[in-house]
Amino acid sequence: MSSSPAGGGPPEPVVGVAAVRVPLVNIANILTVTRIALVPVFLLALFAVEGSTGWRFTAAVVFAVASITDHVDGWLARKFGLVTDFGKVIDPIADKALTGAALFGLSILGELPWWVTLTIAGREVAITLLRFWVIRYGVIAASYGGKAKTIAQIIAIELFLLPLPAGFDPLNWFVMGVALVLTIGTGVDYVIRAIRLRARG
User: Fold this and answer.
1) Are 200 and 137 in contact (CB under 8 A)?
2) Options 3.40.50.720, 1.20.120.1760, 3.30.10.10, 1.10.10.10; CATH of 27-200
3) pTM of the model
4) Contact 97, 43 (CB under 8 A)
5) How far is it, in rounded angstroms, from Cα 101 to Cα 59?
6) Where are the alpha helices (DSSP H) in 4-143?
7) Which of 67, 79, 118, 173 is 20 to 30 A from 109 in CA distance terms?
8) What is the pLDDT of residues 111-163, one digit of tens each?
């Protein structure tokens, strides 16, 4: 059946389907906010009773669960089209809050040298500022090295959090060493990419 009016005029315009608006409150954003909410819970468990194996194991479990949500929320957002501007802003904040809390907590307890914590934290702050420095020229996408760095950091921190026997110390430091190498290496890579991006702009 023709959509033309009875008078034989041009067809009536077809109204297009409006783009679906992603709701702010969705499962991906809920998981991200939950990760932030778990930070004080993690710190309470970490500092609850120094030397308590039970509380220390609880802190390690909370950190592991919160870290898993970092991967799950991103996957859900991409898989089901739940990406929001809020999520783009809050997700990296949640990541840095969790990792930073663990690193500074371990250093305060004297279990991780401050130079390790400050190296990792300093790199994260510097790269965040770097992204803002070049934002008008483009976005520096996360590299495979950056993703490997994040995974290495999480595993290293988890090993330091777990109440493991002293015999595991060499493994703990080996993994932390890998995390540090990736942290510094990817940081240098981001700086080079930022300079090239500015030069092209």
Assistant:
1) yes
2) 1.20.120.1760
3) 0.82
4) no
5) 11
6) 27-47, 53-79, 85-108, 114-133
7) 67
8) 999 999 999 999 988 988 888 888 788 777 677 888 899 999 999 999 999 99
